[in-house]
Amino acid sequence: MDTPARLLALLSLLQSRPSWSGTELAERLGVTTRTIRADIDRLRNLDYPVEADRGATGGYRLGSGGKLPPLLLDDAEAVAVAIGLRAGRAVAGLEEVSDRALAKLEQVLPARLRPAVEALAAAVEHAPENTGTDAPDPEVDPDVLRAVATAIHHTEQFRFDYAGEELPRLVEPYRLLSWQRRWYLVARDPATGEWDVHRADRVTPRMRTHRRFAPTPLAGGDYTAFLMRRAASSGWNVHARLRVDAPAEDVLARINPAVGVVEAVDAGTSVLVTGADSLETVAAYIGMLGMDFTVESPPELRPLLRVLARRYADA
Question: What keywords appear on the UniProt entry (predicted)?
Fold first, then answer.
C-alpha cells in the first residue's frame, strides 16, 4: 500500500475494535512496527485522537474528539447498514430520518456496491407490521429517544412532561426498550423508590438535569420481563378488568405474560387485567381465552362484545 491507503486501512482497523497492539497492526498491514508508529504520528498530525498505552498489555485505540474519522465499512457492512436503514422506515416517526441517512450512504457507496444496494431496494418490501390492532402505530420523535438514551448513558435523572399529566415527572432512567413497534423507558422514581414503565411516544423531555444518581438494582434484574409485565397493566391506551371462571394457573397457561396480569380470587375464579390500543382489539382477543368471563370494567367494552356476539351468531 502507499501511505494514504495504509492510513485509511489503519483507521479502519482502529474503528473495528477498542484496542490493537502495535504488533497486531503491523501484521495486518504487512509493515513493521516502526512504520505503524510513524503512521500513528501522521494520524495525530491530522487531528485524529489516537491514544496509546505503554507496557506489555498496552496498545493503540481511537479516542473521542478531534476530527470525525471517515466511515470505513467493508462490503458486507455497507449492505447491512443500507438494509437496516430501510427497515427503520417501517418504524413510525423514523421514516424521514432513515430516508435522509440512507440517501447520504448511497451517495458515497463505491460503484461496485451500488448494484447490490439498488437490487435490494427494488426487490425488498416490508409487509405491514401492525396486524394485531386497529389503532395506528404511535410516532416517536428521534430527539426523544436521543434525550432518554443520553440520560441513561450519563446516569443522570431525567425530567419530562408526560401526556395527560399537568406536572412533570422526575425519574432515574435505566433502560430504553423497543417492543411491538413501541419504545418504552424503564425508570425508578427517586422519591418513592417505585419502578415504572413510560411510553416514549408520550414523553416530552425537559432540560437536562445534569444530576447524577447511584444506580439501584432492579429486583430480578430482567428489564424486558419487567416491561412486559408492566405493559400488560399500564402500558396500553385502554385497559380492561375481567372476572374469569377459571383458576389463575389455567388463565396464565393461555396467555403471554405481556397480555395481562392474573390474580386468583378463589380456587375456581380469577381476575385478568389486560390492555390494548383500542377496546375493539380487547373485544376481539379475549374470546381467544376459551373461558367464560364477566366484564368488570370498563363499561364501554360490553356493547362491543354484544356486537361481536351478534356477528358470530349470525355467521
Answer: DNA-binding, Transcription, Transcription regulation
In CATH, what number is assigned to the domain containing residue 274?
3.30.70
Boundaries of domain holding 58: 3-62
Question: pLDDT tens digits, residue range 8-20?
Answer: 889 888 877 888 9
Domain holding 169: CATH number?
2.30.30
Burial class (CB in 10 A: 0-12, 13-18, 19+), 290: exposed
Domain annotation covers residue 68: no
Percent of the chain with pLDDT over 90: 43
Q: Report whether pLDDT(194) > 90.
A: yes
Lowest mean pLDDT among 41-45, 162-166, 234-238: 234-238
Distance (Å) of CA 261 to CA 17, 78, 234 = 44, 44, 10
End position of a domain, from candidates 230, 259, 291: 230
Please tell me the predicted confidence (pLDDT) of residue 247. Answer: 94
What length does the chain have? 315
- Number of continuous H segments (helices) and E segments (strands) in the chain: 11, 11
136 in any annotated domain? no
> Between these two residues, 152 and 109, which has the higher pLDDT value?
152
Q: Single out the residue in 62, 87, 103 at which a domain terminates.
A: 62
Same domain membership, residue 244 and residue 222: no
| Residue 57 reports pLDDT greater than 80 | no
The total number of structural domains that make up the chain: 4
Please spell the DSSP secondary structure of 43-87, one letter per residue: HHHTT--EEEE-STT-EEEE-SSSSPPP----HHHHHHHHHHHHH
Q: Mutual orientation of helices 279-286 and 301-314 as an angle, nearest 10°?
A: 50
Does residue 245 fall inside a structural domain?
A: yes
Range 58-63 average pLDDT:
83
